[in-house]
Design goal:
This protein is an alpha/beta fold and about 350 residues long. It contains 14 helices and 13 strands.
């Protein structure tokens, strides 16, 4: 019988796990942590004191740096949090660091005496990858998609584990209302202006859902008329699931490739098909002609949107629910942990360089 593992799960400390509003990394960390506990492992979550978890909770900070201005600079807060896990490394078989922006765990891997695996949640650029690989070529990384893994050439990528979502939290909605949806941060690369253009060209209202910021106020708000372009604000939990489920389709005209795109999984799990540009991990998350459409240009998306809207919503739901269940993600990380457990950090080799 395979023995349970002792796992340190290190979350970002921007906000709680799970988050009170938006926060995909914190949501994923919550699902993974609770799933590992349910699988019989002994897990300690290093996160803020407001976190809710089935694991043991170690909280260096009562509140995250999003909520508490005294927790600043944020980089130091992240370093303090990972340090708390490293200082207790003897209690664990493996430490798993969820990197919001930078892999702050890199310098600690050789000091812990046990494997410290890092999951990136952004698309690293070539200079970042070159720097990390030059100094820490042995540090184990996991990727969240094959697209992200391809961008990590030169790093020690020990596994690819796609994201999961809490499927019951995104119930199937068989009948849509008459609107398209854009749900994501307001920034140039997310394609909100392109989503508005697509909706205008197909003559269907579009709802925009995200927290207002300077980009929204400068570029997007002047286009909001409350009738054809509607601003819904930031949504979370039941309101988010309802907005996703009642949309005719989710528009995802990202201008820069992303390593996953969690909202794609959330929408399709509700039965809502996706119309997305072929960037980054989109072809891995959206099954063209089954759960949505993957297009090479805005013109192609406009022309192909009718076939996306005609997709069988029940089939969209069934395929997405099977692909993005938590059990698959937990099993993927379990395999990584077991492959690493028992190894020691390459301190001796590093010292001899």
């Amino acid at each position: 019988m395979t023995r349970p593992l002792r796992i340190a799960q290190v979350a970002p400390v921007a906000t709680s796990v799970p988050p009170p509003r938006s926060g995909s990394i914190e949501s994923l960390t919550a699902l993974l942590t609770d799933g590992l506990v349910a699988a019989g492992h002994t897990v300690t979550l290093f996160a803020t004191g407001e976190s809710r978890t089935r694991a043991a909770l170690h909280a260096t900070f009562a509140r995250g740096y999003r909520e508490d201005p005294q927790n600043w600079p944020w980089e130091l807060c992240e370093m303090i949090n990972i340090s708390a896990a490293i200082e207790r490394a003897a209690l664990f078989d493996v430490i798993h660091y969820q990197a919001r922006y930078h892999p702050f765990a890199l310098p600690f891997g050789r000091l812990a005496g046990i494997p410290v695996v890092i999951t990136l949640h952004h698309a690293p650029n070539e200079d970042e990858v070159a720097l990390w690989g030059r100094h820490y070529p042995d540090t184990p990384f996991t990727a969240i998609s094959q697209a992200q893994a391809r961008s990590m050439t030169g790093l020690n990528v020990v596994g690819v584990v796609p994201h999961a979502i809490d499927v019951p939290a995104f119930p199937f909605t068989p009948h849509a209302r008459d609107y398209l949806l854009f749900l994501g941060r307001f920034m140039e690369g997310k394609g909100v202006l392109q989503a508005i253009e697509i909706a205008r060209r197909v003559n269907i209202p579009v709802v925009l859902a995200a927290e207002a910021n300077d980009y929204y106020r400068d570029k997007v708000q002047p286009l909001v008329d409350g009738t054809r372009v509607i601003y819904a604000g930031e949504v979370a939990d039941e309101a988010k699931a309802a907005l996703l489920g009642e949309a005719r389709a989710l528009l995802y005209p990202v201008q820069a490739g992303e390593p996953f795109g969690l909202v794609l999984a959330e929408a399709t799990t509700c039965g809502t098909p996706v119309a997305a540009l072929n960037r980054g991990a989109v072809p891995e998350v959206v099954e063209d002609g089954v759960t949505g459409g993957v297009f090479d240009s805005l013109d192609a998306m406009v022309a192909g949107l009718p076939r996306v809207l005609a997709l069988d919503r029940a089939r969209v739901r069934a395929v997405a629910a099977e692909r993005f269940g938590v059990a698959r993600m937990v099993a993927g990380y379990e395999a990584v942990y077991r492959a690493l457990a028992g190894r020691t950090a390459p301190a001796a080799r590093a010292a001899g360089r």
